[in-house]
Amino acid sequence: MVTLTPNPSFSVTLRVQMPNQVGMLSQVIQAIATVGGNVGNIELVEQTRQHTLRVITVDTSSLDHADQVTGAVKDLDEITVLEASDRTFDLHQGGKISVTSKISLERQADLAMAYTPGVGRVCKAIAAEPDQVYKWTVKRNMVAIVSDGSAILGLGNLGPEAAMPVMEGKAMLFKEFGGVDAFPICVATQDADEIVETVKRIAPVFGGVNLEDITAPRCFEVEKKLREALDIPVFHDDQHGTAVVSLAALTNALRFVGKGLGDIRIVINGAGAAGIAIAQLLQTAGVNQMWMCDSKGLITSDRTDLNPSKQAFAVPKPPGVNGAATLADAMKGADVFLGVSAPGVVTPEMVASMAPKPIVFAMANPIPEIQPELVKDQVAVMATGRSDYPNQINNVLAFPGIFRGALDCRASQFTTKMYLNAALAIASLVNPDEITADNIVPSVFDPRVAEVVSASVQQGAREDGVARQ
Fold first, then answer.
1. Quick count: other Cβ atoms within 10 Å of Cβ 103?
2. Close Cβ partners of 211 (under 8 Å, ≥ 6 residues apart)
3. Most CB atoms closer than 10 Å: which of 39, 100, 338, 446?
């Protein structure tokens, strides 16, 4: 495996004291560079005739690499590292979100209206006409982010407490990119029916539900039951958000190489929540040939270990393959590889066996199925889930705008048309003459994204008859 690029997720802050002499700072920078650290901001905190005190931020590639960087500076003569801290943990100190008031309480009249006795009149109005809850409360713009902590990122089943940092981050993204208020709900159960009952009981507060980091196949059951039980939209981002952004990126990648959805063969590696949802959406979009692999290899119709979700995508065993068909067998002659699986499972030889102008989406995070550096001269288009490579397949392109649209039109549920519309809207933000091998999706910071996705989702909701406003 190629060493990962130093990045902010493993960055450190070094508080360094050194003699106030020419060349001392350059020694520190050289020591950091020698072990592969990437120096960022340097702040002069204090300077006397004898000493200077500086705070230096350094991007590294792993915890071990961060220790190497710190050790390299500590080994310098006359240099003292007063403190070394992990910037990511520093950012999470005390949590990342808070609840704030939209109005000020400065006088008695404010209190009388915002709370008792005035608030009682609003309560009675909602009791008389329950639909008014959307007008007079946070429900109109509030989403529950629900997780049982069973499939946190690529880390596995870490439990509800460990899920909190991800859910808080999700809430930040909802607010920053879509103007949607969201709150983490991490439940202390991994029983599908108990999760469903919990969400049903808190649903009066929320205008939508975002399911997050719930392992497959339980996530399918939870989403299905909640969609049937609730009159507010339910969305599993690991499934549908990933599918929407993948389709958007693939749409522009195919434009770049001059191929059509109906003419290609796609190999999807990973048959969990994301893989199944991507396959379903691509099928609806017009992909005719799709081969799916799990940890045991290609999902073929002769296998007896398949659940219903996998059975729907089983294909005949490729000609000439003896025994179980492998991922390597599946990739021969494929136009597109789309990975939502595990690090390092793809080799350069596998990519070389693909059809001309291969497209590779290696979306395992933080370490992709194959490092882009290994196949940079073999692929026509490469995308990953990482922010330090071009073409990041990032769900933040989708879910803030998708919920913004659903909330604004008071959709009762999400439909496939809404997802397709969202994907095409994202793809449309890269002009055809601007599409390149390194530019197939818009930036997550493009302010147009949520607005355009929201509008397209509302249009789909109205066409499917699920918009109530």
1. 8
2. 146, 147, 219, 222, 223, 226, 234, 235, 236, 237, 238
3. 338
Tokens standing for 230?
């609730």
Written as one letter, the residue type at 16 is: V
Per-residue pLDDT for 154 more than 80? no
pTM comes to 0.90
User: Are 199 and 183 spatial neighbours (Cβ–Cβ below 8 Å)?
Assistant: no
| pLDDT, tens digit (0-9, with 9 covering 90-100), for 101-147 | 999 999 999 999 999 999 999 999 999 999 999 999 999 999 999 99
**Bridge pairing between strands 7-19 and 289-294:** unpaired
Longest dimension (CA), the chain: 83
Phi-psi region of 47 (alpha: psi -120 to 50; beta: other; left: phi over 0): beta
CB 11 within 8 A of CB 87: yes
The rounded distance, in Å, linking the Cα atoms of 16 and 24 is 11
For the chain, the residue count is 469
Q: How far apart are CA 65 and CA 71, in angstroms?
A: 10
What's the pLDDT at 7? 87
Q: How far apart are CA 30 and CA 24, in angstroms?
A: 10
Q: Which residues are catalytic?
A: 115, 170
**Which residues have CB under 8 Å from 391's CB, separation 6+?**
249, 381, 382, 383, 384, 438, 439, 440, 441
Residue 367 — very low, low, confident or very high, per pLDDT cuts 50/70/90?
confident
Smallest Cα–Cα separation from 350: which of 293, 275, 279, 272? 293
Question: Which band of pLDDT confidence, cut at 50, 70 and 90, is reported for residue 249?
Answer: very high
Task: Specify whether the CB–CB gap between 244 and 267 falls below 8 A.
Answer: no
- What DSSP character marks residue 300? B
Q: Which two tokens stand for residue 9?
A: 């997720």
**Mean pLDDT computed over 268-282:** 93
Q: Which two tokens stand for residue 417?
A: 């048309």
Which tokens is 149 given?
A: 């902590």
Q: Is 206 helix (H, G, I), strand (E, B) or coil?
A: coil
Place of tokens 């890269």: 430
| Secondary structure (3-state) at 124 | helix
How would you classify residue 108: left for phi > 0, otherwise alpha for psi between -120 and 50, otherwise beta? alpha
For residue 462 the two structure tokens come to 């109205």
Residue 1 has pLDDT above 70, yes or no: no
